[in-house]
Amino acid sequence: MPTNIQEKSIIVTGAGRGIGAEIARGLAADGARVTIADLSGDNAGAVAASIRDGGGKAIAVAVDVRDRASVRAMIEETVRAHGRLDVIFNNAGVAQTKPFLEITEEDWRFVTDVNALGVLIGMQESIRQMLSQGGGGKIVNTASIAGKQGYEPLAHYSASKFAVVALTQAAARAFGKERITANAICPGVVATDMWKVIDGGFKEHGLTSRDNEAFDNFAGIAVLGRASAPADLVGVARFLASSDSDFMTGQSLMVDGGMVFV
Ligand SMILES: NC(=O)c1ccc[n+]([C@@H]2O[C@H](COP(=O)([O-])OP(=O)(O)OC[C@H]3O[C@@H](n4cnc5c(N)ncnc54)[C@H](O)[C@@H]3O)[C@@H](O)[C@H]2O)c1
């Protein structure tokens, strides 16, 4: 088990399902006190309840990461329940598949409001809390292989994930002296509900002809020979939440089975 996760107060946004839920379960299994935060309060509640049923420590909070007041309330509830905030995973995200020339201003705002603005707000408000309580802290953002490569029918999604990498680097430079680190995880093709949306978009726009074709094609690029499961992200998440990663900041770690080499 990585050192120093026990009793840490850790928020995971977008933890009502998918990658976030699995990361939160892994951290709770290591003894962290986790805040399961999601736009779906029902899903967040169900994940938190299942962690508590297994003997872990978890609270659920409904949050909209695009809304600063809602993010502040999430942090306040966490501090009320767990005394402080040590780590935040800004993981909530949305995806949309659209051919490049068909992306509208509305599409751009839909994707970037959650994936880029939501991460900026989550970082700002959690860093304010960490500065006021003292003792440093850790920011871990979920970027993507699409934060390192622009993918044509995911141009606005890719742009939003490049923004996550940039925000991670900028915050690392800004807050290193206060011992607040910022790093990102870049997943590849993970079998979650999000990929159902992406895959469906490929088919809807005539870019593929059968269900799961885009998923299979993308996953086929991974040199380790398979798509990811949410569990494949948990080891790196634990490392980034623990003191084992204390001397690392500004990095975006590819955890994609070998799809993009940077
Ligand atoms: N699935 C993949 O292949 C993949 C690959 C690379 C990166 N990612 C990134 O990983 C993260 C998690 O993705 P996932 O695959 O688990 O997706 P998912 O759709 O299964 O889960 C995303 C969660 O985010 C929540 N969410 C959406 N908008 C929100 C908002 N405004 N406020 C709060 N919560 C909100 C949703 O309710 C959902 O529970 C995302 O940032 C995604 O972009 C996923």
TrEMBL record:
GO terms for molecular function: oxidoreductase activity, acting on the CH-OH group of donors, NAD or NADP as acceptor; quinone binding. GO terms for biological process: fatty acid biosynthetic process. Coiled coil: none annotated. It holds the Pfam family adh_short. InterPro entries: KR_dom, NAD(P)-bd_dom_sf, Sc_DH/Rdtase_CS, SDR_fam. Belongs to the short-chain dehydrogenases/reductases (SDR) family. This is Shikimate 5-dehydrogenase. The lineage of its organism: Bacteria, Pseudomonadati, Pseudomonadota, Alphaproteobacteria, Rhodospirillales.
